[in-house]
Amino acid sequence: MAVRLPRPHRFDxxxxxxxxxxxxxxxxxxxxTRPAREPIVLLDGRWxxxxxxxxxxxxxxxxxxxxxxxxxxxxxxxxVDTITQGNLVTVLMFTDLxxxxxxxxxxxxxxxxxxxxxxxxVAGTVVPVAVWREPEALLIGVVIGLVGLTPALTxxxxxxxxxxxxxxxxxxxxTALLAEMDxxxxxxxxxxxxxxxLHDMVANHLSAIAIHSTxxxxxxDPKTSREALSVIRENSVEGLAEMRRLIGILRDSSGDTAxxxxxxxxxxxALVDGARTNGLDVTxxxxxxxxPTPVELAAYRIVQESLTNAxxxxxxxxxxxxxxxxxxxxxxxxxxxFGDRDGPRAPGSGAGLVGMQERAAxxxxxxxxxxxxxxxxxxxxxxxxxxxLPVTEGDRE
Length: 397
Hints:
Strand content: 5-15%
Strand order of the largest sheet: 1-2-3-5-4
Radius of gyration: 44 Å
Largest sheet: 5 strands, mixed
Number of helices: 10
Number of strands: 5
Helix content: 55-70%
Mean pLDDT: 81
Order of helices and strands: HHHHHHHHEHEEHEE
Structural class: alpha+beta
Distance between the termini: 61 Å
């Protein structure tokens, strides 16, 4: 299988062509870096100058796609160029190969090239001075530093700035992503909270309306119909008030509808009275002290939803609501007869149990609901809802 070489960058090809044309121009007018009579010139003749020039131009075209290979080949070609009369453009293109190897090469190459060129610069300075003991020998080190070390250090600085800019860009993208995730999570949590509030506030009144309207339609008794319509009207007015309260929560406080205070445990008496009006036999046993506002709201909504479920699904019998506070937690217990009711029923969606469980979980509490054995009950079972909500700061998650 043939290996496909990477395609050179268009800019690099242009640079290589420009370098090649510039070198040919200098060669054509007879400009070289060394005269032919110098002892170092082993390959005499003007045509030898073109070999390093052409190969270095080819390496220049591959400086971005094959930076290490281009540098190694360029190093060999520069050595060949030193034993010819030499071309200034060949040397300049080699400096660009050193720069490109540091900027575009692997991290290991970017670290090693400055060290290698630095060591060569030191050696090129110390060794000639020690051997020849002439001040002019320092120029060899200066030339090596200009050709090798200077472009390597320049490439190192450019690469560091580029890497820092890329890291900053990635951090900005991650920050934006995290912010978007937080925003999405906040929107989802708010929608879930609104759904729970809407369900808990309206479901009780709509269930009572559905049950009593069905009874009014199925019974041909003016007195019963009047009583049913009275209950329907009362629940309609209360449901409308609850909807207005929800709209007030959603509106800005500077608008024409200000938010109404959230219900508390002190309102359980009125809630139970409303359930009795709807036909439930409810008893309330509440013994609690001062609890945090979120716990009060959760306990109130759990009782409200439990009474709604009893109205929709429970058979006739006693419904007990018990609120107790002990050991740093508030316990909410609602029991009702287990079994299908004989009269009209309101349909359920199952969202009520999920909402109660979510309310308890948000406060770090626990929730359970289901049938339990009860010998005192008519059919031996009751439906029990129990939630334990922590009321101290240390118990919350």
